[in-house]
Amino acid sequence: MIETQTDQILVQNIGRDPYYAVRDLQKEMQQQRINGNIEDTLILVEHDPVYTLGKNANEDHLLQSRDESVDVFNIERGGDITFHGPGQLVGYPILDLSNYKRSISWYMRTLEQLTIDVLDEFGITANRIEGLTGVWVGDEKIAAQGVRISRWVTMHGFALNVNTDLSFYDGIIPCGIFDHGVTSIEQLLGEKQDMETVKQVVIKKFNQNFIQGEC
Q1: Which domain holds residue 199?
Q2: What is the mean pLDDT of residues 110-118?
Q3: What pTM, to 2 d.p., does this model score?
Q4: Which residues are catalytic?
């Protein structure tokens, strides 16, 4: 793990780590942030392949045709089912929203704007779709998000498909949405991307959307 202090946000660049280990880390850090023992932090990580089901997920969206070697976790975030795996950059902000804006909808829309701004740096025009969470390019989803907030401190976050093996999505109905596909930066640009470069853009845009725009 590489821990760096930018001008505004503490970043833990974990590299690649199993989902369950980082979930436990988040829980610990969320409690530490609630207690005022740590500063706001952004965790950046890639996971081994895993399917996660949010607390309101429909288990029928986990298809019988899936690769059964992929672990499945039921977790406490909102949202339905999604996939995490190598080549996907996952961001877990541990933030005290009391220092920003005590609004879940504001937080979710700001996460979306963060991803839209990141993609713009790569020449990709992304958008929101009314009534759906996440970020889209056309009618294909490129970034998912789901959060859990306790005493206005956040955990979980967003997942951006960078060089993701999209075939893993064939085993689920992503986010419970039947009529939209998924895509990645690699697929859209036709070449594999340098993950460390993407991380630096994410950190830059995170600071611009959250810290510099702090309420």
Answers
A1: 2-211
A2: 98
A3: 0.92
A4: 175
